[in-house]
Structure formats: structure tokens, C-alpha cells
């Protein structure tokens, strides 16, 4: 490897020395227009999807405090007149009862069989009128759209031949002869009325069957409780007169001390319940308008960088050798 490196170094030195002492070829330097490839940065408009914030009006529920009247019970003082008992002592005449023998006519009860009228409850059928619903078919008018034929006047363009009276100059030929024409025809655009069949929409009344709920009277059997009179075997209490010996109580007047209860009026304080109207706070639901932001997609134009390939003119310096034998006069 070392010998190969020395050999290459010696060959390079020999080549450099030969080029240095060699005679250069004869020629001139000239400018040559060439096109050189180049890349330039340009801006390109592209559409990019973005999100735009918009405001939307929505109704949201809120709780609103309102004042409502309510009745509140409260205790208020009051005066009430009451009566209280009072005991008083006094002497009053009284009758004292004593027993004396006597004949007394008494009435003795006896039972006598008899019949008495009694009322008995029984169930009897009755007819009661009730209202029951039923469906009745009725005819109601409805409007239906139908297509009806109609004739409509329209105008269509049409070309017609129209004569031009008199002589008309057309030109001259190369010898000077004039050319004229008589009674020429020309086309004229006119609008010709035509009648075309068209369809128009009209409303036609029809009848539609619908069910309507009505009420009718029907008889319904029910049971009613009534009372009927019957006769029942019973016992009747009667009184019979009899005379028996009894001890009769007679009254003898005496004086005794007696305690008498009297009533005196007195005012006492009491509490009574009264209702008083007050205002209470109550929450009620209401609706409030608010603005809510929403994101909607939009297309937005943006500028992006891009490289574009271009060709630029460049003047290059080239060596053109000159030959002594032949000259083309380019210099």
C-alpha cells in the first residue's frame, strides 16, 4: 500500500509540471447566454377549514322569586267575661216531711197484646235515564286541489315575407352599368298570437266522512230502597186503677240555714287565633334569553409557501479557440 501511494504521488507531480510548462492553446473568452434552472419561493392561496364562533339566542329556565299572599295564624290577647260560683249562707223557710196514713189511688201497669205498624225497607227496581256517548258519522266539507284545463293566449315569433315596393339601387359593375331591382322581398319578424292549453290548480269542495261524539239518553235499571208498612205482634202497656194504703208525706215548715250558690261575672284574659295576611317568597320558573356561543365550520383562505421551478438567463464566460488557418470573421 505504501509503494502504491508513492507511485500515485509521483505521477501527480509529473502531471502538474507538464501542465505548467506546456503552451496554452490560442483562443478568446466570449459570453454565452444559457438558461439556468432555479427554485423560487412563491405564495399559494389555499382554502383551510376553520372554526368560527357565532352567537345563538337560546331560552334557559331560571327560578324567579315572587311574593304571594298567605294566611298566617297568630295568637292575639282578648278579654272574656266568665261567671264564677259564689257561696252565700242565709236562713230560709223549709218544709219538713212527716209520714201520715192515707188511702191512695194508684195506677198499675198491665200488658195487653196488640198489633203495631212497622216500616220495612225493600228494594224496588226503577228506571233511570243516563247519558251515554256514541260516535255518529257526519259529512264535513274539505277542499281538494284539482288540475283543470285552460286556454292561455301566447305570442310566438314568426318570419313572414314582406314586399318592398319601388326601385332599389344595387350597385355598378366595372364598366359603369348600374344594377337596380324592383319589388324586393324581405323577411320580417312578427309575433303571432296562439292559444295553448295549460293546467291550473283549483280548489274543489268535497265531503269527508268523520266521526263525531254525541250523547244519547238511555234507561238504566237501578234498585231503590223503599219503606212498606207491615203489622207486628206486640205488647201494649195499659194502666189499671187500684186503692192501697200508703203513708202520705206532709210538709211542715221550719227554718234552716242554707248555702246558696250565686254567679258573679269576671273578666279574664284569653288568647284567640286570628288569621293575618302576610307575603311569602315563592320560587317560580321563568324563561330568560341568553346568548350561547357555537362553533361552525367555515372555509378560510390562507397563504402557504411553495417552491416553483423557473429558468433564469445567465451569461457564462467560455473559451473559444482560434485557428490561424481559417477565420470566419466572428470576432
UniProtKB/TrEMBL annotation:
Q: Which residues form the signal peptide?
A: 1-22
Keywords (alphabetical) are: Signal
Determine if Signal is one of this entry's keywords.
Answer: yes
Database matches in Pfam families: DUF4816
SUPFAM superfamilies in the cross-refs = Ferritin-like (SSF47240)
Q: What is this protein called?
A: Golgin subfamily A member 6-like protein 25
Q: Which organism is it from?
A: Drosophila kikkawai
Amino acid at each position: 500500500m505504501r509503494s502504491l501511494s508513492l507511485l500515485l504521488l509521483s505521477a501527480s507531480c509529473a502531471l502538474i509540471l507538464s501542465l505548467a510548462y506546456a503552451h496554452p492553446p490560442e483562443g478568446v473568452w466570449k459570453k454565452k447566454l444559457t438558461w439556468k434552472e432555479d427554485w423560487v419561493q412563491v405564495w399559494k392561496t389555499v382554502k383551510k377549514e376553520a372554526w368560527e364562533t357565532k352567537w345563538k339566542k337560546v331560552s334557559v329556565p331560571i327560578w324567579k322569586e315572587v311574593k304571594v299572599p298567605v294566611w298566617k295564624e297568630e295568637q292575639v290577647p282578648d278579654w272574656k267575661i266568665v261567671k264564677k260560683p259564689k257561696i252565700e249562707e242565709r236562713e230560709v223557710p223549709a218544709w219538713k216531711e212527716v209520714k201520715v196514713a192515707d188511702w191512695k189511688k194508684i195506677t198499675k201497669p198491665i200488658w195487653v197484646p196488640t198489633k203495631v205498624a212497622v216500616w220495612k225497607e225493600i228494594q224496588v227496581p226503577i228506571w233511570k235515564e243516563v247519558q251515554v256517548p256514541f260516535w255518529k258519522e257526519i259529512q264535513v266539507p274539505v277542499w281538494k286541489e284539482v288540475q283543470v284545463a285552460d286556454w292561455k293566449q301566447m305570442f310566438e315569433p314568426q318570419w313572414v315575407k314582406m314586399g318592398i315596393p319601388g326601385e332599389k339601387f344595387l350597385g355598378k359593375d366595372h364598366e359603369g352599368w348600374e344594377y337596380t331591382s324592383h319589388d324586393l322581398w324581405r323577411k320580417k319578424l312578427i309575433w303571432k298570437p296562439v292559444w295553448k292549453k295549460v293546467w291550473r290548480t283549483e280548489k274543489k269542495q268535497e265531503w269527508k266522512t268523520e266521526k263525531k261524539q254525541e250523547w244519547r239518553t238511555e234507561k238504566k235499571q237501578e234498585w231503590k230502597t223503599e219503606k212498606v208498612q207491615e203489622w207486628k205482634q206486640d205488647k201494649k202497656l195499659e194502666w189499671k186503677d187500684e186503692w192501697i194504703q200508703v203513708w202520705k208525706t206532709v210538709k211542715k215548715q221550719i227554718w234552716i240555714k242554707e248555702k246558696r250558690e250565686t254567679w258573679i261575672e269576671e273578666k279574664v284574659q284569653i288568647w284567640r287565633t286570628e288569621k293575618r295576611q302576610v307575603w311569602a317568597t315563592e320560587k317560580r320558573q321563568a324563561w330568560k334569553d341568553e346568548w350561547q356561543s357555537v362553533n361552525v365550520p367555515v372555509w378560510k383562505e390562507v397563504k402557504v409557501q411553495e417552491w416553483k421551478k423557473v429558468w433564469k438567463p445567465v451569461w457564462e464566460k467560455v473559451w473559444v479557440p482560434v485557428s490561424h488557418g481559417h477565420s470566419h470573421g466572428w470576432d
